[in-house]
Design a protein that fits this description.
Number of strands: 0
Radius of gyration: 29 Å
Largest sheet: none
Helix content: over 70%
Order of helices and strands: HHHHHHHHHHH
Number of helices: 11
Structural class: mainly alpha
Length: about 325
């Protein structure tokens, strides 16, 4: 697998400080490489463990890992967990068989969770990157449109990296510059090769269309102008949908988090007053109600308010929640 690094700066990707990547490198360096040198294990690994599909997924996730590194690390982790749980179960069996059974089933669940997590981690990261790239395209298109009025496509690709402030889409253009500056590809081949490992089908199609228009001598500015207009229409539709969602959430907020607590407080006070006047309450019921009311006011309601704020935040379109890179 190729490792993408631009000429004059380090790629800012999710793999630079990724603990999973660091762990896989470490396991492969000290254990995996030695195992693959064994002919029998290498044959078993190629037939039963290795999956070529993950080579593309690891590239799209921008994890600087060879498929061999990743799969060896997963298998060693699962095998090590299984051995550890087996030894612990045997030790506990002589102490208390019930504890041994709990450890055995707990270890089975833990191995399943670790396996599911590690096998799906690159897929989740690739999908997350694709969504962030799609969300950054509305900020990319206007820059490219302005630049295309004065300079050609080749020059746009070379300098657009200086205008980008969003991490994932910046990484994709740094891949293009890697092919262009390090491998000596022409601009068209650089774009097409880089887009093969792009997790965003939208960006890949857009860049390939621009390559085709550039090769055929078409008007890139007119094409980008149409793309910007279409993008603005999509954004307007998303904003309208978001406003409708916020209206519904505001009604839920008023009913459940404003009116309901107030109604509960008033009714509790009235019922306590009636019970007190009728002298039907016991000495323990009134303090219990008071404690429940305090818990609701000081613990339950603040968590509900916080959850509602997070719900409102994440209901916004992703392009409005993207954070720019610091110190670009």
């Amino acid at each position: 697998m190729e490792i993408f690094k631009p000429a004059n700066k380090k790629i800012s990707g999710p793999s630079s400080e990724n603990p999973v990547t660091f762990y896989c490198h470490f396991v492969y360096k000290f254990l995996g490489r030695r195992l693959l040198l064994m002919p029998n294990f290498k044959e078993f690994f190629d037939k039963s463990i290795y999956n070529e599909r993950y080579e593309s997924i690891l590239k799209k996730a921008n994890l600087k890992l060879l498929p061999e590194e990743y799969f060896i690390s997963v298998q060693i982790t699962l095998l090590g967990t299984l051995i550890l749980m087996g030894i612990l179960s045997l030790i506990l069996f002589y102490i208390n068989p019930i504890f041994s059974v709990f450890v055995f089933y707990g270890g089975t669940v833990m191995i399943s969770v670790i396996g599911i997590f590690m096998y799906n981690y690159p897929i989740v990261v690739a999908q997350k990157r694709g969504k962030e790239i799609d969300a950054a395209i509305p900020y990319l298109l206007p820059y490219m449109k302005i630049l295309s009025k004065e300079i050609n496509f080749s020059k746009i690709v070379e300098i657009i990296d200086d205008f980008l402030i969003y991490k994932e889409i910046k990484v994709e253009f740094e891949k293009i510059k890697y092919y262009l500056d390090f491998l000596g590809y022409d601009i068209q081949s650089s774009v097409r090769e880089a887009m093969l490992s792009c997790p965003s089908r939208r960006l890949a199609d857009m860049m390939n269309d621009l390559v085709t228009i550039s090769n055929s001598g078409g008007d890139i500015y007119a094409h980008l102008e149409r793309k910007v207009e279409n993008m603005n229409q999509e954004i307007d539709a998303l904003e309208k949908k978001n406003i409708d969602t916020l209206l519904i959430l505001s009604q839920v907020y008023v009913v459940l988090l404003l009116i309901a607590p107030l109604f509960f407080t008033v009714m509790s006070a009235i019922l306590n007053l009636i019970n007190f006047s009728a002298e039907t309450t016991t000495s323990s019921s009134s303090p219990l109600q008071t404690v429940m009311l305090i818990l609701i006011l000081l613990i339950v309601l603040p968590f509900l308010y916080l959850g509602f704020m997070m719900l409102v935040y994440y209901s916004k379109p992703l392009y409005s929640r993207l954070k720019p890179i610091k110190n670009v």
